[in-house]
Amino acid sequence: GGGEKLVGDTTYCDFPEAARSIQKIGDTMSPNMEAIIALHPDVVFVSTASQIEAFMRTLAERNIAVYVVDARSVDDIIDSMLIMGDILGTRPEAEKTVAALRQRLDAVQSKVSGKPIRRVFVQISNEPLFTAGREAYLNEVVKIAGGESVTQAIPGAYPNLSRETALKLDPDAIVISDNEGNHEPNSAFANSAAVKNGQVFRINADLLSRPGPRIVDAVEAAARDLHPEAFKEN
Prior knowledge:
Blueprint: H1 33-38, E1 43-47, H2 52-60, E2 65-69, H3 74-88, H4 91-112, E3 118-125, E4 130-131, H5 138-144, E5 147-149, H6 163-169, E6 173-178, H7 193-196, E7 200-204, H8 205-208, H9 215-226
Parallel strand pairs: 1-2, 3-5, 3-6, 6-7
Antiparallel strand pairs: 3-4
């Protein structure tokens, strides 16, 4: 509910459509500090990234508040909207949005309840092979959708897997964060149950790999892929 208060965003910010016309301040890894300061913001929302301490220190020296969003679960993503609503003075709008999102998540969980739990590998990139580790919210996306991430115990958020490690996983379903260069499963999965049985699914990376409200779209898509029988019309 605070879109009209937004004065700057990154080159990756392309949704909703109005975000495209906001002044760009660089990308998430190398923001243009001069451009940010020139906008005279009251607060800067930052996702966890490298150089964050130096970034925050520079803004603090100019009395610009910083709020760091570190989403490690779907709940974290949704709760951050409420916190942003508090900061922006739009709590009622935020609560309405969050309630609708939680209702959709509850509906998914109700539909997949009691269904066989699928063993899922989430492929973030093909080569090198990156996936969702212990600290990634994508494991919970898979869980809500009626699956279990086969990499959920691997340390880190987005670990780079060796071919040997990938071969041992043998998932029965593969969910690909579909973006340029990442459309097909890594060759290490050629003989996996997932590939042999045609259980390879592609979800738009903008939905799956961005910690925003569209993560619920990704959960719904994953659930339909993993348990299509639960979504058949009566």
